Structure formats: C-alpha cells, structure tokens
Amino acid sequence: VQLQASGGGLVQAGNSLRLSCAASGRTFTNHVMGWFRQAPGKERELIADITWNLGTTHYADSMKGRFTISRDKAKNTVDLQMSSLKPEDSAVYYCAARRSAARDYNFWGQGTLVTVSS
Question: Which distant-in-sequence residues (6+ apart) come within 8 Å of 103 by Cβ?
Fold first, then answer.
C-alpha cells in the first residue's frame, strides 16, 4: 500500500491550500481515509476522515469550518482543502488509511510540509 501526499508548501496566512493523497496498492473498499497533522513539539492530531465507500465525513471539533476532506474514487485520491490558513496550521500533514472496523490507522503516507507565514 502506498499513500503519497502532495501539495504542501509555503503559504501566507489567510490563503488556501489543497493537499492531495494518491492511494495505491490495494482496493480501499471498507476503509476509512484520514488526514492528520503534526506540528513541531506536538502530538499528531486527526483533522478529518472519510469513508471510502460512501464518502461519509468526520471532522475533529477544532478543525470544523476551515478544512474539507473529499475523496475521488475514480482517481483513488483523498484531498484536504484548507482555507483561511493561520501560522498555527504549520505542520507536517499526513494521509492515512485503516479498515472501517479497525480503530487504528495502519497505512501512512510520508507527509507533506505546510508552512503558513504571518
């Protein structure tokens, strides 16, 4: 299984950025795809997840409003649209996958760095 995250970079505060995760190596039926982030010195935190089959989304409370997760089954991608970015959004962003019945994510991408300048 490969999860390839892309789209990170340097962006000014207030702007938007779209991350994409290309998933390959298996079918993701009955899987949940998630986006996480980890800032320096902080624990990794869930931003949002989406079920592959139905596209049902779930957002961490602190992430609601500025982040939108989506998936494209034809392209095998999971995207994270981020808007009104703040310097505190600077982090390495990871995509991950788990089976729907599992609690823990067992497939992880390599991460993409997002830096938001003030």
Answer: none
Residue by residue, pLDDT tens for the chain (118 residues) are 899 999 999 999 999 999 999 999 888 889 999 999 999 999 999 999 999 999 999 999 999 999 999 999 999 999 999 999 999 999 999 999 999 999 999 999 999 999 999 9
Q: Which residue has the tokens 């390839």?
A: 4
Task: Tell me the C-alpha distance between 45 and 47, whole Å.
Answer: 6
| Residues linked to residue 102 through DSSP beta bridges, in sequence order | none
Give CA 63 to chain center in angstroms: 11
How many Å apart are CA 6 and CA 8, to the nearest integer?
6
